[in-house]
Amino acid sequence: MAGQTVCPRCGARDSFMKGYLPETCVCRICLSQLDWREIPGCGPDCKAAPSEGELAGAPTPQSAQESRPGGVSEKRDEADGGR
User: Fold this and answer.
1) Kind and range of the H or E element at 39?
2) Which alpha helices (H) appear in the chain, and where do they start and end?
3) Is 8 within the bounds of a domain?
4) Of 11, 13, 14, 39, which is the most buried if we count CB atoms within 10 A?
5) What is the pTM of this model?
């Protein structure tokens, strides 16, 4: 289960959206504009940052593509007519 973000000002859970200024998040409830580092458990995208345990079990984009039969490069060759 992914973590939750909690607004330090009003206590609302998972209420952040990306702010206008770089590295800022805005609470949709109290409209507080905070640096994402000021929000416990928040990542730079204003969503809950995955924990280390979740990162260890997640497949990397490269390994996910390798496990898929008929990779992207083969499909491109078919679209080009085998050129």
Assistant:
1) none
2) 52-57, 61-66, 72-79
3) yes
4) 39
5) 0.59
- Whether 42 maps to a domain, the answer reads yes
Gap between the Cα atoms of 65 and 72, Å rounded = 8
Planar angle of CA 74, 75, 76, nearest 5 degrees: 90
What is the predicted pLDDT for the residue at 1? 46
**Do 18 and 25 form a contact (C-beta atoms < 8 A)?**
yes
Q: Are the beta carbons of 9 and 27 closer than 8 angstroms?
A: yes
Is residue 51 over pLDDT 90?
A: no
pLDDT tens digit sequence for 7-24: 999 999 999 999 999 999
Over residues 64-68, the mean pLDDT reads 52
Instruction: For the beta carbon of residue 68, count every other beta carbon within 10 angstroms.
Output: 9
The domain of 40 spans 1-66
C-beta separation of 72 from 62 below 8 A: no
Q: What is the mean pLDDT of residues 53-65?
A: 55
